[in-house]
Fold:
Amino acid sequence: MAAVHIDAKSLHYTPLNQQIRKAICDGAKEITIDNVLGQRFIGDGLRGNDVTITVNGVPGGDLAMFMSGPTIIVHGNADHAPGNTMNQGKVIIHGSGGDATAHSMRGGRVYVRDSIGYRGGIHMKQYMEKRPILVVGGSARAFLGEYMAGGLLIVLGLNGQVPVAERGVGSGIHGGEIFVRGKVEDKYLGVGAKQLPATVEQMAIIHPIIEDFAKAFGIDPEPLISAQYSRIAAASARPFANKYTPE
Structure:
């Protein structure tokens, strides 16, 4: 079984996800799901590096939660928390993502062509070689990268958008890093976050990621590669140390 088509019109998310799992167990490597309208948990917990799932429509919450390996391509927007606690694989969203995009993400990549809602990248974390990556083409709302413990978050501000113009950026961040094309106004930085111009060495690391993002959406990478970026990271490993009683 090489390819499978599923019509999700009027289909509850439970039998839809059962059909997806059965197709993979039967050996399907390419699965296309049409008429998706709010069905939750698509791709959750799936494994298999050689599996690609194409979603035509708007998937519901927690897309690719706990996923380890597959690639999910969404032709439309995604509801809240795509990539929640994802472990490995790739999610490519040809639209916008909801609140808590990449919540607690542990590995893999999430690419959002347009914008995301509040608390994108909250609690992202990493362990040794597992480094989650979230790239946002448009803008992000408040509390971007809140409580980040690891990983990489990049916001590009395409089509003249301001990458981040709301409060709490990096609030409580104690690991990982946020790169923004241009600069975030200091008044929008959260507690424990500091901002500095990205160095040449840092840019050399994120350039291949930006190029991969641009390739996924057919975007010219050159204006993004040649732009100036700011890096937001932890000012301290214990941003809320003064909130606790000394030993």
